[in-house]
């Protein structure tokens, strides 16, 4: 599978951005290594994590995912082949974009990842209490020092993203070039049309998280079904929403036509947007990678995209078949 330019950066990435969220809780070290090995064997090179993963688990304090990824790269000797993205600003007790906190957290991430640079470093969430100019200056300094190559913003409103960009440009500082917001077939509030238009005009990229709606779009979570999953509770709101269940039905119909899984179609729909070069999805065991990779390799017809667009309110996403993409691709 070809690697794709990430916005206007010098990074080239796989269309499946492997989520490191399960590493250290849903998947132990051995399982995580197996998933990472299987992903790399297919040509995968893009791994997403965060300093907070997985502080919500009893006995964990955050950084477990980064540590596993760092140990894996050290053992495999493949750091230069990987594009590593991590985040700052949501770890319990350190959930701020205060410059001193950013500085301390990036050093911790570098140590855990066993590397001298982070390829893509996100502000994990907006911090309304932090001075945006000071934040921009701190991130810019990390880029100039070579500790960070490119910057991203996650969970930012469009207004706050624009404000941050204006400050960076006015002062000649490194800008956010990649956005990571929640976006999937049945959850579109965090990526409205105006956001998409802004990214397209500015040649930025969206890397959506929760791309499978917590597992709902895999088709395994339906009313009355019991699923053995560490994230089963995250899909309850969709299982109980008839509109979401109807959207899943459209997904299943198209999957049937392609003789593939709903997982693949859900990811292919995301990748049909010309602002989305890669989608974040995770696997707890190597066997789960097949459906994710199938989505990265599936091209939907314009008619199929229109059916999926119409399966949820605020449709008409201006999606285009991948062969027509420009901009972020």
Description of the molecule:
- The chain is α/β, with parallel strands linked by helices and 329 residues long.
- It contains eleven helices and ten strands.
- It has helices spanning 29-41, 64-76, 99-113, 132-144, 158-170, 193-201, 236-239, 242-258, 262-271, 289-296, 302-309; strands spanning 4-5, 12-13, 16-19, 46-48, 83-88, 118-123, 148-154, 176-180, 205-206, 279-281.
- It has an eight-stranded parallel β-sheet.
- Helix 1 links the parallel strand 3 and strand 4 (46-48).
- Helix 9 (262-271) runs parallel beside helix 10.
- 50% of the residues are buried.
Which key terms come to mind for this protein?
329 residues; alpha/beta; 8-stranded parallel beta sheet; two-stranded antiparallel sheet; 10 strands; 12% strand; disordered C terminus
């Amino acid at each position: 599978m070809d690697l794709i330019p990430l916005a206007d950066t010098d990074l080239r990435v796989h269309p499946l951005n492997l989520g490191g969220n399960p590493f250290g809780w849903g998947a132990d070290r051995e399982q995580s290594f197996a998933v990472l090995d299987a992903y790399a064997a297919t040509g995968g090179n893009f791994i997403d994590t965060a300093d907070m993963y997985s502080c919500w688990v009893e006995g964990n304090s955050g950084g477990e995912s980064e540590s596993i990824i760092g140990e894996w790269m050290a053992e495999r000797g493949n750091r230069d082949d990987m594009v590593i993205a991590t985040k700052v600003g949501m770890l319990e007790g350190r959930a701020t974009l205060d410059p001193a906190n950013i500085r301390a957290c990036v050093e911790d991430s570098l140590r855990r990842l066993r590397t001298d640079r982070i390829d893509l470093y996100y502000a994990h969430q907006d911090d309304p209490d932090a001075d945006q100019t000071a934040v921009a200056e701190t991130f810019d300094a990390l880029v100039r020092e070579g500790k960070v190559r490119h910057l991203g913003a996650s969970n930012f409103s469009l207004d706050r993203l624009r404000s941050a960009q204006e400050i960076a440009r006015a002062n000649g500082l490194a800008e956010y070039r990649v956005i990571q917001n929640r976006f999937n077939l049945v959850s579109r509030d965090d990526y409205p049309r105006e956001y998409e238009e802004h990214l397209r005009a500015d040649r930025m990229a969206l890397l959506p998280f929760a791309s499978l709606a917590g597992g709902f779009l895999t088709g395994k979570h339906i009313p009355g079904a019991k699923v053995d999953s560490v994230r089963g509770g995250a899909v309850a709101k969709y299982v109980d929403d008839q509109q979401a269940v109807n959207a899943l039905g459209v997904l299943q119909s198209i999957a049937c036509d392609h003789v593939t899984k709903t997982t693949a179609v859900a990811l292919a729909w995301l990748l049909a947007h010309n602002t989305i070069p890669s989608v974040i999805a995770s696997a707890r065991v190597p066997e789960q990678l097949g459906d994710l990779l199938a989505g990265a390799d599936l091209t939907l017809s314009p008619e199929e995209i229109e059916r999926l667009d119409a399966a949820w309110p605020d449709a008409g996403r201006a999606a285009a078949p991948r062969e027509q993409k420009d901009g972020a691709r």
